[in-house]
C-alpha cells in the first residue's frame, strides 16, 4: 500500500479523539455544575439592626446590640452570595406601647430568600425602651444657599408655619433654640420666590402635626445705596417777582437702588422748588419741596428752611 495514504488517516484519528475529549469535558463540567447548584452550605452571618415603625410622638432608648448574628443553611450559591451583601435585621416597633419591651428575633426579620433556613440567632431577643418624647415649640428659619443675581440681595425670609412643635429626647431638645429648613438655592435669581421645603431635623427629633410642607417666602430686591448731592439749585415757583434764596443751593442725601443712583442726573431727575404763589415783595422763611424718582428715598436735606427775598422786577 502506498505510504502517502497514512497522513490523512492520522488526521482523521486526531479529529475523532479531539471530539471525544471535548464531549467528555463538557459532560464533566455539566456534572460539576449540577453538583455546585445542589450543594448545601451552612455559614454564620452578621446583619445590622434596623429599627422602623416608631410613632413620631415617641422616642427610643437604642438597644446595646448593633448587629444580630445567625447561622444560615441552604444552596451553596445563595449562601456564598450573602458575603457580598449588606444584610439587615429589621425590627418593626409599630403599635408598641411606651415602656420596656423584649422582641423575639425570627428568620422573618432578616428578609432572606425562602430557600435559606435560619437555624440559630444571637441574640434571640432585643430589648428596647420606648418613651413618650419631650415636646418643644420652636421658630422656623429658612436656610438659604447661593447668592442672587448681581445687584440684588435678600432683604428678608419667612417660613409658613413660623413655629413648629417637635418631639424628641430631652437632651437634644434642650440644645435647640430654632428649626432650620433644608437649604433653598437662590443662585442667580433676581426676584422674590416662594417654595415648598422640609425641616432639617437631627436624628431622633420629629415634627408633630406637619400635614403640609414648610412654605419658604424669600424676599429679594435690588441692592440699595446712598448718595449725597451737593449744589442742587433751588427754584422759585408761583411768583412773578425776583426771588433771591439764602442759601441759594441745597444738599440732599438720598437712598435707592444702587444702579439707579449711579445713573442719576440731579439736574434732570430731581426738582427742588419753593412755592411763592400770592406773596408780595418782602422777606420770607420757606421750606423747599423736593421731587425725586419713585425708587429714590430722601434721607436728609440741608438746609430745611430758606430765607427768600422777593423784589419787584
Overall, the morphology is: elongated
CATH architecture type of the largest domain: Beta Complex
Return the string of H and E elements: HEEEHEEEEEEEEHEEEEEEEEEHHEEEEE
Report low-confidence residues grouped into runs of 5 or more: none
Spatial gap, N to C terminus: 153 Å
Query: CATH top level of the largest domain?
Result: Mainly Beta
Number of domains: 4
Beta-strand percent range: over 45%
Number of helices: 5
Major beta-sheet overview: 4 strands, mixed
The strand line-up of the biggest sheet is 4-1-3-6
Which value, in Å, is the CA radius of gyration?
A: 43 Å
Structural class: alpha+beta
Helix content: 10-25%
Total E-strand runs: 25
What does this entry look like structurally?
By secondary structure, this protein is an alpha+beta fold. The chain folds into four domains: 3-38; 41-132, RNA Polymerase Alpha Subunit, Chain A, domain 2 (Beta Complex); 135-222, YbbR-like domain (RNA Polymerase Alpha Subunit, Chain A, domain 2, Beta Complex); 224-311, RNA Polymerase Alpha Subunit, Chain A, domain 2. It has five helices and 25 strands. A four-stranded mixed sheet has the order 4-1-3-6. Strands 12-8-11-15 form a four-stranded mixed sheet. A three-stranded antiparallel sheet has the order 2-7-5, with no helix packed on it. The mean pLDDT is 87.
Amino acid at each position: 500500500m502506498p505510504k502517502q495514504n497514512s497522513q490523512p488517516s492520522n488526521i482523521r484519528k486526531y479529529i475523532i479523539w479531539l471530539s471525544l475529549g471535548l464531549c467528555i469535558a463538557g459532560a464533566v463540567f455539566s456534572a460539576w455544575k449540577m453538583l455546585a447548584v445542589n450543594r448545601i452550605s451552612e455559614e454564620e452571618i452578621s446583619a445590622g439592626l434596623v429599627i422602623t415603625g416608631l410613632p413620631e410622638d415617641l422616642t427610643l432608648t437604642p438597644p446595646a446590640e448593633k448587629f444580630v448574628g445567625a447561622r444560615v443553611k441552604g444552596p451553596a450559591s445563595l449562601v456564598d452570595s450573602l458575603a457580598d451583601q449588606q444584610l439587615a435585621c429589621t425590627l418593626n416597633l409599630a403599635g408598641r406601647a411606651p415602656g420596656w419591651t423584649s422582641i423575639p428575633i425570627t428568620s422573618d426579620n432578616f428578609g432572606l430568600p425562602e430557600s435559606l433556613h435560619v437555624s440559630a440567632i444571637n441574640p434571640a431577643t432585643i430589648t428596647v425602651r420606648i418613651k413618650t418624647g419631650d415636646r418643644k415649640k420652636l421658630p422656623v428659619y429658612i436656610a438659604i444657599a447661593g447668592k442672587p443675581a448681581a445687584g440684588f440681595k435678600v432683604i428678608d425670609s419667612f417660613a409658613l408655619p413660623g413655629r413648629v412643635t417637635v418631639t424628641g429626647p430631652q437632651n437634644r431638645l434642650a440644645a435647640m433654640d430654632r428649626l432650620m429648613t433644608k437649604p433653598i438655592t437662590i443662585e442667580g435669581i433676581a426676584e422674590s420666590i416662594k417654595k415648598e421645603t422640609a425641616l432639617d431635623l437631627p436624628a431622633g427629633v420629629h415634627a408633630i402635626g406637619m400635614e403640609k410642607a414648610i412654605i419658604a417666602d424669600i424676599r429679594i430686591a435690588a441692592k440699595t445705596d446712598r448718595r449725597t448731592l451737593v449744589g442742587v439749585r433751588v427754584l422759585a415757583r408761583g411768583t412773578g417777582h425776583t426771588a433771591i434764596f439764602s442759601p441759594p443751593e441745597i444738599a440732599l442725601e438720598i437712598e435707592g437702588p444702587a444702579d439707579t443712583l449711579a445713573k442719576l442726573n440731579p439736574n434732570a431727575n430731581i426738582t427742588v422748588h419753593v412755592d411763592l404763589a400770592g406773596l408780595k415783595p418782602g422777606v420770607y422763611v420757606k421750606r423747599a419741596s423736593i421731587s425725586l424718582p419713585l425708587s429714590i428715598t430722601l434721607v436728609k436735606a440741608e438746609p430745611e428752611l430758606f430765607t427768600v427775598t422777593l423784589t419787584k422786577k
